[in-house]
Amino acid sequence: MRISLICVGKLGRMAEASLALDYAARATAAGRALGLGPVEIVEVEARKSGKAAEAEAILAKLGDAHLAACDEHGQALASRAFAARIGRLRDDGVRRLAIVIGGADGLDAQILEMARERLAFGPQTWPHALVRAMLAEQVYRAVSILAGSPYHRD
Q1: Which residues lie closer than 8 Å to 141 by C-beta, 6 or more apart?
Q2: What is the CATH number for 59?
């Protein structure tokens, strides 16, 4: 199952971009034997400002993927639960999982309505660049858990 992190905005050479790419590469390498990957980071930019224009750019990259939206009102999952959800989607035959991070104002209602699930990183407000790195790290952690690697909380 391919995993795409679809993110509004381009980070360029920011440290968070490098960190996110590193975790995506680690997840890709660790996930091969598990039928997970590649893990890719897809940056999108809207031609106009606003959530509706961002939604249009996201939809252009979404295809028929199983959509999970990062949203402040979503469900905060423990790492093991997140890993179990990814494993279940893979086992159910989902070919591509797309996890979407919106722009500064969040995601358009159209994307939220299409999402089969909503994920949150808790009640705090996080910079989008940092959320990208945190999400990539959690995907890597999920792949590691599914691979049976020792988990520091056990």
Answers
A1: 79, 82, 83
A2: 3.40.1280.10
N-to-C CA span, the chain: 27
Query: Does the pLDDT value for residue 152 go beyond 70?
Result: no
Does 153 fall in a domain?
A: no
Q: How is residue 116 written in tokens?
A: 């089969």
Select from 123, 141, 115 the least CA-distant residue to 55.
115
User: 33 lies in a domain?
Assistant: yes
Structure tokens that stand for 137 in this block: 């790290």
The residue whose two tokens read 């990957």 is 37
Count the Cβ atoms, other than its own, within 10 Å of residue 126: 15
pLDDT (tens digit per residue) in 53-72: 999 999 999 999 999 999 99
| Cβ atoms within 10 Å of 35's Cβ, excluding its own | 11
Dist CA 37 CA 139 (whole Å): 10
Give a yes or no: residue 130 inside a domain: yes
